[in-house]
Amino acid sequence: MADRITELQKRRFHDDGFFVVENVIPQHQLRVLRDEGQRFMDEMDAEMDRQGVDVLDLNHRGRRYFLSMKCKKSQAVRELAFGDAMAEICRATIGGEAYFFLDQFVMKLAEQGMKFSWHQDSGYIPYGHRTYVTCWCPLDDVTEENGTVYLLPYSRAGTRERLEHVTEERSNDKVGYHGDDAGIPAIMKAGDVAVFSSTTFHRSGPNKTNLPRRVLLLQYSPEPIFDPDGKPRHWVDPFLQGGSKLHYNPAASPTAYLPRCSSP
User: Which domain range does residue 182 map to?
Assistant: First the structure.
């Protein structure tokens, strides 16, 4: 993986806020992760049944799901999140000090998947913090038809800083960009990874196909992120120290209350 991220990609991350790496996740790992995503989606439906609702936070039954903080419950997620590929991406973007911040399955179901509005991942954190990195890992081929991510270069967004976001009615999405630029669609194969900064504006369209569009999101921060009350925002697990990968012990990992940061 070390020779897979080029100097051009590193410059693009600095200049535009994103790049794409191809063929990162092998097919056998993709199959297991799809099964894990279905397991967690079934659990969310059961929780909605228990509460008697069809919308829970950003989850909309049968349409769109954000299934977060599953790392401790899934060996498959841990193997990818703490593997060599993600370590190399972190070194190329945020440097040799990295903390695992968030894992999240993002599911758009067939012919039902909703859009997700223009936002920065940092826009979901309502206080100052250092910019972190998102690894957007499609578990299916992604196109404009099935709701891939659209990315807005810093130059076209007019900023590389975190902006305040407003909450959109009905969807509960947070919105931070209100211009008319449609962005650049990331047309990717399952197993590719879109890498973007937490201050890069991105969105996604609805899934108009007869197949699901499934993504696993992994995020890493250059330092632990804590809420003002001192509690971890999400995970605060050391991943890289001095550029070297550390051993992950899920039993020793503190758990935050509930993820409040999402990507499309």
Answer: 17-241
Task: Evaluate whether residue 147 is within a structural domain.
Answer: yes
Assign 223 a pLDDT band (cuts: 50, 70, 90). Answer: very high
pLDDT digits (tens, 9 = 90+) for 19-34: 999 999 999 999 999 9
Q: Quote the number of domains for the chain.
A: 1
Is there a domain that residue 264 lies in? Answer: no
Task: Indicate which CATH number applies to the domain containing 175.
Answer: 2.60.120.620
Q: How many CA atoms lie within 13 A of 10 on its CB side?
A: 14
* Close Cβ partners of 153 (under 8 Å, ≥ 6 residues apart): 15, 16, 17, 18, 184
Is 7 among the domain residues?
A: no
Place of tokens 């012990």: 249
Q: How far apart are CA 124 and CA 162, in angstroms?
A: 10
State the amino acid at position 148 in one-letter form: T
Structure tokens at 19: 């790049």
Percentage above 70 pLDDT, the chain: 91
Residue 260 domain flag: no
Contact between residue 105 and residue 61 where contact means Cβ atoms under 8 Å apart: no
pTM: 0.90
In the prediction, which pLDDT does 249 show?
73
**Helices within 16-116 (DSSP H only):** 27-51, 75-81, 84-93
| The pLDDT of residue 194 is above 60 | yes
